[in-house]
Specification:
Layout (H helix, E strand, L loop, with lengths): L7 E7 L2 E7 L5 H8 L18 E4 L2 E4 L12 E3 L12 H8 L9 H14 L5 H7 L11 H16 L1
Helix pairs in contact: 2-5, 3-5
């Protein structure tokens, strides 16, 4: 049982909102997001940073939240899939995933979309190789990746024309 003195009070920006939370030194960001903050778009897959289901953007970069100590995000910016859409308006990447049929069971989709966002923020018209590289940390067992790669290309076109 943790004593109250072993908890750390940290603050960070989560999906555009300043957030304060108490964390134990050994808690991962994944645990804090899902259990304490009820951010359930971040999925627990392998727990070893290999599958990409727990991907979040930390200061704009994709990170496996299952490996990241929550205390390390103090004063940083975190984006989860919940923060991508604006109200009822989906982000162009989310729209593209739906249009391209890149959503099957949906377990990997949040991590794929966030990895795609990080790529498209840096390179609005990526090559197939760049897309494959950017998504290499995300495993999908349903689609075979063709639709996902097409969705990323479509999203790049949507973003560049908006």
């Amino acid at each position: 049982m943790l004593s109250r003195t072993s908890l750390l009070n940290i603050k960070f920006v989560l999906n555009g909102e300043l957030t304060h939370v108490e964390v134990a030194p050994e808690e991962t960001l994944l645990e804090v997001l899902r259990s304490k903050l009820k951010i359930t778009g971040v999925k627990k897959g392998c727990g070893e940073g290999e599958c990409g289901s727990c991907t979040i953007l930390l200061d704009g970069k994709p990170v496996a939240s299952c490996l990241l100590p929550a205390a390390k995000v103090a004063n940083r910016q975190i984006l989860t899939i919940e923060g991508l859409a604006r109200g009822q308006d989906l982000h162009p990447i989310q729209e593209a995933f739906l249009e391209a049929g890149a959503v099957q069971c949906g377990f990997c989709t949040p991590g794929m979309i966030l990895s795609a966002k990080a790529l498209l923020d840096q390179c609005p018209a990526p090559s197939q190789d760049e897309i494959r590289q950017a998504l290499s940390g995300n495993i999908c067992r349903c689609t075979g990746y063709v639709q996902i790669q097409e969705a990323v290309q479509l999203a790049g076109r949507k973003i560049s024309t908006s």
